[in-house]
Amino acid sequence: MEQGCRKMGTSTRKFPLHSSKRLRRRFLNRAFAVVYFFAIVALLYHHAESLLYSPTYGAFFISTSLLLSDIILGFMWLNSQAFRMNPIIENIFPENIEKVCDRKNFPALDIFICTADPYKEPPMTVANTALSVMAYDYPAEKLSAYVSDDGGSEFTLFALMEAAKFGNYWLPFCRENKVMNRCPEAYFRSNSCSNSEIKTMYESMKRRVESVVEKGKIIDEYKTSEEEAEAFGKWNQGFTRQDHPTVIQVVSQAGNDTDIRGHSIPNLVYVSREKCRTSEHHYKGGALNALLRVSAVMTNAPIILTLDCDMISNDPSTPHQMLCHFLDSSPKFGFVQFPQRFNGLNKADIYASEFRRMFYINPVGMNGLSGPDYFGTGTFFRRRIFYGAPSSFIEPEIVELNPDNFVERSIKNQSILELAHHVAGCNYENQTNWGSKIGFRYGSLVEDYYTGYRLHCEGWKSVYCNPERASFLCEMPISLNDSLNQTKRWALGLLEVSLSKHSPLVFGVRFLGPLKAHCYAYYAFGPLLSFPVAVYACVPQIALLNDFFVFPKVRNK
């Protein structure tokens, strides 16, 4: 990545790529925190005193509940102050990128898109996400999109094949009309498109994809070539979601396939890793590690973007924004995290699905403490980050997985495809460092939080990049049932980390320092907030009925 663009010290001084600004009012917050701390101590003293002199069992119960609740709330407040000690806002200047680095020298980019269920995550959603990133304002021969289908659905593959055909028209349309939102569904929904032909083509593709999902099979007339028929032939009667062989299909190949204007289109590869009921698959973390290996064998780009299947690109210049940090950073710099911004939220956001504190406020505070955590999507990684600490490289088991390995052969080369199938096998990780020291980390249901935490413990740094125009837009659960299911998974995964040997209060303090460790502890122990919420929802009413004062009177000493 560095060889074509790294020798640019003078250029970056003349044309800066990014700048940092510390918030001036941080000192006022520190002074306020000291005052607030003593107020919390006084409140805990009051609860303890009330507990010692409780006249009845009811008063004892109330005082105990309030004391425990306020201890938890005080602990979480203390953790939250770490975000406010040194907040930093990053500014970027993507317009300077091509002044310091020629497009032909841009580093290659592998994009990982993850999906797991064709009914909860419709194939058309996956296709739209893939098209939105394939249309990046970036050299097509340096772009590769890998779609991980953990549901093993032939409908997802069919949607990608249809998307590639439509992409032959969509990509030049976006270039020639300078379209900003390059997700077809979002574009046609928000614009009265003057080109009715391109919209008709999209609607036709959409009908075909949705019809095969509805019918539950792909009819022969939709299989337009022997290669497609052979690909879908892998879904036989013994093929199930939980038990099936590896399926890797090159849908489009850069340098070989072109659009209607004769320009190359990016690589698009469908990957469904092997699954077996007797082997642990590690959910999304396992799927990402399979993509990490498959992509290393096929293209091995030095930079990786991870996306959820419902997170579309909203700005074709996002790779330029990413390069503002990667091309002017230290060897310890590991990833750029973009915020999650959401479509489809009602105005009131009654389920708090926007998570403003998690995705907008706290990351600014973590910018001053070696950088934000990994959100699980919208993240650009340096591939080297997954192979040990900056100063201690961990050699993978085969040379083809080395992040510095140069791939000379075509992604359709038979030996390349055979090796890609091998590294996507369900037993490949047995007796290796994958998931523990190499790749995305296993050990928690929230593999994103845990992976980012462990990477920071190893000494890697990151940065939070929040441009004015949203780089990505995604959907969030807006029903109570979906919101509760997601919150339950997060809570269980975070408690797995907080109660493990890698707890931020022990392991984190040792390797990150107290401030950054408390940032991670804020999330890891976040599920404990359910207790004080329940107490303060019920106990004050009980106290009122029993003529018991929850808080001290103003005239009390």
UniProtKB/TrEMBL annotation:
A GO MF label: cellulose synthase (UDP-forming) activity
Binding positions for UDP-alpha-D-glucose per the UniProt entry: K120, E121, D150
Chain segments annotated as transmembrane: 27-45, 57-78, 520-543
Active site, UniProt feature: D150, D448
Subcellular location: Endomembrane system
Primary localisation category: membrane
GO BP terms: cell wall organization; cellulose biosynthetic process
Stretches assigned to coiled coil: none
A GO term from the CC aspect: membrane
Record membrane topology: Multi-pass membrane protein
Keywords: Cell wall biogenesis/degradation, Glycosyltransferase, Membrane, Transferase, Transmembrane, Transmembrane helix
Residues binding Mn(2+), per UniProt: K284, D308
Protein name: Cellulose synthase G3
Organism in which the protein naturally occurs: Olea europaea subsp. europaea
